[in-house]
Design brief:
Oligomer: single chain
Distance between the termini: 57 Å
Strand content: 15-25%
Strand order of the largest sheet: 21-18-14-11-10-24-23-22
Helix content: 25-40%
C-alpha cells in the first residue's frame, strides 16, 4: 500500500504517532482509506488512490490564495508562482530554475494585495511577536476565571448573563484584578436548552444570545420570567427557551429609531451575520416541526444555504430573521460594554476570552462554511492510559485544504471575532494548530489519525490579529505536545498554561514557584480540573469512584493512600512545612497557600478559578462525562458581591493580589 501511504502523507495524514509512553503506533490502512475519502480523496482501490494522489499534487501546485510571512523576513515564493518556461528557437521548452525568487522584507504588519505573474493574492505580514503582558504596563497581573452562567445577582434569574459579568468586573477591579477570564460565549442553538456546553457551539463567529442584557445597552430590562426554584443547578432546558421568549418581548417593543440603529450597527458584519440569523430562524422553525437538532435533520433542500428553498424561506420569514439579528446585536454590544467597563475601571487587560477547539456538527458554521470544514469527520483524542478507547468530542473544525483554498479567511474571521470584545484570547487545545486527531464519523476514536495543519501560518495569523487588536494570546498547551510546538509558541510571544496539578518535578513533587516558566500563565486550576479544596478533601476521588473512573484502576484504598502522599508533597512545596499539614476536611489553609504560591511565580499573568477564590469543592466540568456529572450547571450559592465581601474570600483576594505586587520568588 505504498501509494496509499504516499497519498496520506501528501494530504497531511500521519501514518504513525506516539502514545503517552513514547511508543510508536501505526494507523491501519483501513483508517487511512476512510479518512482520505472523508477529506475528498477516494482511496478504496489502487486506481482511486492513484487518481487522488495526482489530484492532491495538482492542488498543491496551484498558486495560493494567501502567502503568510513575517516582518523583516524575505519570503520565498512557492513554485506555483515562480514557474518560468523558456522556448528555444527549435520550439522545445526548458523550465528555468526560479526557486530562489523571493519577496523583499516588509517592515509594517498588515494585509497587502499582491499580484505575482498575473495571479492576485493576499500577502499577510505578521509582527515577530504578540503583545506581551509587560506591554500592558502593570507588571505581574492576576484575575479570576469565571463561569458566567454560575453568577448570581440580587435580581433572580435562572442563570448569569453579561449584566452579572459586568458587576463581577466592577467588583474584581476594586480588588486589584487586571483580567477576568471567561468561558466561551460562542453561539449555541437558538432557544434550545438541550446542548448547553460552551465548548460545543453552533458557531464560533457569533455569540450566545442568551447572555445579552438590554440594560447594558440602554434598553428596558428583560420582562419577568417564570417563578424560579432555589436549585443550585441550572435547568437549561427550561431556562433557555424562557430567555428567548423574554428577548422576543424586548424585540417586539423596540421603536423605529432603535431598529434603525441596530440595522446600522449590524451592517458592517454583512452577509455572514445575516446567514447566521437565517440559520437560527431555520433551526427554530424545524425544531417546532419536530426535527432533531442540526441542519442534517432538515429537508434536503435546506442543506445548501444558497438553495432556492432557503432563499424563499428568508423572504417569507424576514421578521424572524430580524429578531435573530437583534439578539446577536444585543449580545455583541452587551459584551463590548463589559470590556469597556473593565478598561474604565483600570483593568490592564479586561476580558480574557476563550476560543473553543471546534463546532457542533449540525451547527451554523458547519452549514454556512461547508467548503472550509471537515466533512464526515469528527475530532477528539487518541487512546491513552486515562482513556483506553480514546475520546470523540463530536465536533468538527476547519480542514487544512479548506483553509488553503479560502486564503485562511474563516480562521482570520474567527480570531477577529473573538478579539473584538476582549483584551486577550485563550485558544483551547492549541495543539490543533499543528495537528488534530480526526475520526471517520460513526467509528470509534481508535480508528482515527492525526491530520497535519499549517502551524506556522496559523500562528502568524493569530499574531497579526493580536497585534491589530492589541491583545495577549494564551495557548492551551496541556497534554502530549507535538514536536516543535513549544518553541513555536515562544517565538511568537504566546503564553502557555502552567497549571498547579500538572507542574511536577522529576521526583513527582510539585514545582516550586520560582521554577515556573515566566512565559506561562500560572493557574491553580481550570474548569476541567479539581478545585484546590476539592482535591485536598478528596472530592474528585469521590466522583471518580462513583463513576468507576479512578486513574490506573487502583482500589479506593490505594487511591486514598496515593492522595495522602501527594497532599504531603503539595503542602511541602506550598509552605516548606512551616506549619502543620491541615487535615483533608480543612482545605482552607491549602487554598490560601496555593493562591500565594501561584501569585509568587515569575509568570506575567496568574489566573485563579472563581471556585478557588471562594474555596469551593465542586468543579464546573468533569471531562469525559455528560449527564453523569452536572457539567456547566452549577451556580453560586448567593450573589457574587455578597460572597466577595465574606472575610475569608476577601483575605484570599488580598493574598493573591499582594503576592502579585511583591517581587517574584527567586
Amino acid at each position: 500500500m505504498q501509494q496509499l501511504h504516499a497519498l496520506a502523507e501528501t494530504i497531511g495524514l500521519s501514518r504513525t504517532w506516539w502514545d503517552a509512553q513514547g511508543r510508536e503506533m501505526i494507523v491501519p490502512d483501513a483508517s487511512l482509506q476512510a479518512l482520505a475519502q472523508a477529506l475528498g480523496y477516494p482511496a478504496a482501490t489502487p486506481a482511486q488512490i492513484a487518481d487522488s494522489l495526482d489530484a492532491a499534487r495538482k492542488e498543491q501546485a496551484c498558486p495560493p490564495a494567501m502567502i503568510v510571512t513575517q516582518v523583516g523576513k524575505t519570503t520565498p515564493l512557492p513554485r506555483s508562482l515562480t514557474s518560468a518556461v523558456l522556448t528555444a528557437p527549435d520550439g522545445t521548452t526548458h523550465r528555468l530554475d526560479t526557486s530562489s525568487w523571493t519577496l523583499p522584507a516588509l517592515d509594517e504588519p498588515g494585509y497587502y494585495p499582491l499580484d505575482v505573474n498575473g495571479h492576485a493574492l493576499t500577502l499577510a505580514v505578521a509582527p515577530a511577536s504578540c503583545p506581551s503582558i509587560a506591554s500592558l504596563g502593570k507588571g505581574r497581573i492576576w484575575g479570576p476565571a469565571v463561569q458566567i452562567p454560575a453568577l448570581r445577582s440580587a435580581s433572580p434569574q435562572p442563570f448569569g448573563n453579561f449584566a452579572d459579568l459586568a458587576k463581577a468586573v466592577d467588583a474584581f477591579a476594586q480588588t486589584g484584578a487586571d483580567a477576568v477570564a471567561i468561558n466561551p460565549v460562542h453561539a449555541l442553538f437558538a432557544g434550545d436548552g438541550r446542548d448547553f456546553s460552551p465548548y460545543s457551539p453552533s458557531s464560533r463567529l457569533y455569540l450566545n444570545t442568551s447572555m445579552g442584557d438590554p440594560g447594558l445597552v440602554g434598553l428596558p430590562p428583560l420582562p419577568p420570567g417564570a417563578p424560579l426554584t432555589p436549585d443550585a443547578l441550572i435547568d437549561w432546558e427550561t431556562a433557555l427557551p424562557q430567555r428567548q421568549a423574554q428577548l422576543r418581548a424586548v424585540f417586539a417593543a423596540l421603536d423605529a429609531p432603535t431598529r434603525q440603529r441596530i440595522a446600522a450597527d449590524n451592517a458592517p458584519y454583512g452577509k455572514g451575520l445575516r446567514d447566521h440569523a437565517l440559520f437560527d430562524a431555520l433551526s427554530v422553525h424545524f425544531a417546532q416541526s419536530g426535527s432533531a437538532k442540526g441542519w442534517q435533520s432538515w429537508p434536503k433542500a435546506f442543506h445548501d444555504p444558497t438553495s432556492p428553498q432557503v432563499a424563499a424561506f428568508a423572504r417569507d420569514n424576514a421578521g424572524e430573521i430580524e429578531f435573530h439579528l437583534f439578539t446577536q446585536w444585543l449580545a455583541r454590544e452587551s459584551l463590548a460594554a463589559v470590556q469597556r467597563r473593565a478598561r474604565d475601571a483600570g483593568m490592564a487587560m479586561g476580558l480574557l476570552a476563550d476560543l473553543a477547539v471546534g463546532v457542533h456538527l449540525g451547527g451554523a458554521d458547519a452549514w454556512a462554511m461547508r467548503d472550509a470544514m471537515l466533512d464526515g469527520l469528527t475530532i477528539g483524542a487518541p487512546p491513552d492510559p486515562l482513556g483506553p478507547l480514546g475520546q470523540n468530542w463530536m465536533l468538527t473544525g476547519f480542514s487544512p485544504q479548506g483553509l488553503a483554498r479560502s486564503g485562511y479567511a474563516p480562521w482570520i474571521a474567527t480570531i477577529r471575532a473573538a478579539l473584538s470584545t476582549a483584551g486577550a484570547l485563550r485558544i483551547d487545545h492549541a495543539f490543533g494548530l499543528a495537528r488534530l486527531w480526526v475520526i471517520p464519523q460513526g467509528t470509534p476514536s481508535s480508528a482515527g489519525a492525526y491530520l497535519r495543519y499549517p502551524l506556522e501560518d496559523l500562528l502568524r495569523l493569530v499574531t497579526l490579529e493580536a497585534h491589530l487588536a492589541g491583545a495577549v494570546i494564551v495557548a492551551e498547551d496541556l497534554g502530549t505536545t507535538p514536536q516543535g510546538f513549544e518553541p513555536a509558541l515562544a517565538a511568537h510571544g504566546m503564553l502557555g498554561m502552567r497549571v498547579l496539578w500538572f507542574e511536577r518535578a522529576r521526583d513527582d513533587g510539585f514545582t516550586g514557584a520560582s521554577d515556573y516558566d515566566a512565559r506561562g500563565v500560572a493557574m491553580t486550576g481550570t474548569h476541567d480540573t479539581p478545585t484546590v479544596a476539592g482535591w485536598w478533601s478528596g472530592r474528585d476521588l469521590e466522583w471518580a469512584q462513583k463513576l468507576g473512573r479512578l486513574p490506573g484502576d487502583p482500589t479506593p484504598d490505594q487511591a486514598q493512600a496515593q492522595r495522602a502522599w501527594d497532599r504531603g508533597l503539595l503542602w511541602a512545596t506550598l509552605t516548606h512545612d512551616a506549619e502543620p499539614r491541615p487535615e483533608p476536611d480543612n482545605p482552607a489553609p491549602v487554598v490560601n497557600a496555593a493562591l500565594r504560591h501561584m501569585g509568587a511565580t515569575p509568570c506575567g499573568l496568574a489566573i485563579a478559578p472563581l471556585e478557588d477564590l471562594l474555596g469551593l469543592r465542586e468543579q464546573p466540568n468533569l471531562p469525559g462525562t455528560t449527564t453523569e456529572h452536572p457539567n456547566w450547571r452549577r451556580r453560586l450559592s448567593r450573589p457574587l458581591l455578597d460572597l466577595l465581601d465574606e472575610p475569608e474570600t476577601a483575605a484570599r483576594l488580598h493574598t493573591l493580589d499582594a503576592a502579585r505586587k511583591a517581587p517574584p520568588v527567586r
